[in-house]
Design goal:
The chain has two domains: 4-224, P-loop containing nucleotide triphosphate hydrolases (Rossmann fold), CATH 3.40.50; 237-359, OB fold (Dihydrolipoamide Acetyltransferase, E2P) (Beta Barrel), CATH 2.40.50.140. The chain contains nine helices and 20 strands. The chain is α+β, with helices and mostly antiparallel strands and 361 residues long. Bound molecules: adenosine-5'-triphosphate.
Length: 361
Amino acid sequence: MTVIKLHNITQSYNDNKILHNINYTFQNNKFYTILGPSGCGKTTVLKLIGGFIHPTGGEIFFGNTKMNGVGANKRKVNTVFQDYALFPHLNVYENIAFGLKVKKVNKKIIDEKVLEVLKLTNLTEYKYRDISELSGGQRQRVAIARAVVNEPDILLLDEPLSALDQKLRVDMQYELKEMQKRLGIIFIFVTHDQEEALALSDEIIVMQKGNIVQAGTPKDIYDEPLNRYVADFIGESNIVRGTMVEDMKVDIYGKTYGCIDGGINPGTPVDVMIRPEDIFIVKHNEGKLNVTVDSTLFRGVHYEICCIDEDGYEWVLHSTKNAETGSRVSLNFEPEDIHIMIPGEDEDEFNERLESFQEEQ
Ligand SMILES: Nc1ncnc2c1ncn2[C@@H]1O[C@H](COP(=O)(O)OP(=O)(O)OP(=O)(O)O)[C@@H](O)[C@H]1O
């Protein structure tokens, strides 16, 4: 059983520190997504696991074996890159068989293995097609087939769906998830697309400026983001300033609301998050907050309704029913849907939480 352990990993390029003390353990047979904005260090983590670069500090283990200094060709890891890097002069079969031929694997075994991955990736009927005659999604599948034919323990996927249109992207997401289950190996997928991360992952790792800020199941991260940065990155949210009044009571813009969080000193400034789908419209004066409907947008599965409260603050909610612009209504939300977060701007507090999170890993 392969487990990848990153222990106190740092990475610098020319004295420029890119990764700061990364600690994380990847378990076997799980789909991981590394999520974060451009330049936060996602690809650098993949390159370290793939053995394309070696860490400036810290240790990488595969199981009990220390992998620092072990080259990419000595690891049971394969990578699917954003641009697929297929051989344009070879057909589908030849592209997939290439690595096995180089290793001088017996022709009959190559044939068996290629046929098996063609089936796995739904490419059997395209076996002898030239790469130039394939769609983007089919090329993507060839790249994956070529990566898995060597039976790696770990598959690294660096933004592999970014070149596909939206519909194809969603289809490929289903296929990738299915493939990971069938192969039973570790998939580590890099993206800056939060919807993709939520749909695909068993675990999401959120990165910011070379640090892991939060890691957990999609539901954990969506429901309980550690701070404003994570909440903003994952899903849509109303994030407002508040102050803890006492356990299970928070002040938002001068009004006190019940919440389910405790253990934070009264008077502590906090960020408060309420997801748009957790806010409901009721009759004027009958809810927690009187507002005027400012604008509405039809988003297909729901209406996105923007309201302004009596103090001029904006609240966005999602509803299957539309509301009339200019109408005066009231908003309701439950105490368990008020999520309290420590403000990200408070550096000391933030670093303390970051350290305790990293220690837990
Ligand atoms: N070989 C290198 N030499 C110097 N700096 C590098 C090198 N490779 C990456 N960097 C820098 O390291 C930082 C992290 O890069 P990385 O590619 O890991 O980010 P990323 O999160 O994958 O970004 P993207 O989503 O844009 O691919 C960036 O600031 C990048 O400029």
